[in-house]
Amino acid sequence: MTGEANWTVLEIPGVSEVAVRAARKVARDYASLVEYDDMYQDALIHLATKSDLVHAYVDGPDGLGGLHHWLWCRLVNGINVSKSNRTRSLDALLAGGADE
């Protein structure tokens, strides 16, 4: 996740609910590895840093369902990275830095 964050995408109708649903599903499916609050925060960061993609999903044929699937995949991928003993700090991500 690199690039400038565009937090206004969270104001698009349905987008913030997609973050809640995706974070809730990942936290439920991977309860022994992650917490909902962390997944929700990661979801918001993914959406804000990929605003062009958010607009493409919302305006395209896949709609919010497609956005939900994309976001869920990104969150699960983040868990798999953590499981392989690679961790990233939120500060490093926001600063555009590499893995710590």
The overall strand count is 0
Strand portion: under 5%
Count of the separate structural domains = 1
**Structural class based on helices, strands and sheet pairing:** mainly alpha
| Gyration radius over CA | 13 Å
The biggest beta sheet reads: none
Shape: globular
Query: Which residue ranges are poorly predicted, with pLDDT under 50 across at least 5 consecutive positions?
Result: none
Mean model confidence by pLDDT: 87
SS element count, helices: 5
Binned, the helix content reads: 55-70%
Order of helices and strands: HHHHH
Distance between the termini: 15 Å
Structural features, described:
- The two termini are 15 Å apart.
- Helices cover 64% and strands 0% of the residues.
- It has helices spanning 15-29, 36-49, 51-59, 63-83, 90-94.
- It is built from five helices and no strands.
- It has one domain (17-94).
- The model has no long low-confidence stretch (mean pLDDT 87).
- The protein is mainly α.
Key terms for this structure?
100 residues; mainly alpha
Q: Summarize this, please?
A:
Helices cover 64% and strands 0% of the residues.
Helices and strands in order:
Blueprint: H1 15-29, H2 36-49, H3 51-59, H4 63-83, H5 90-94
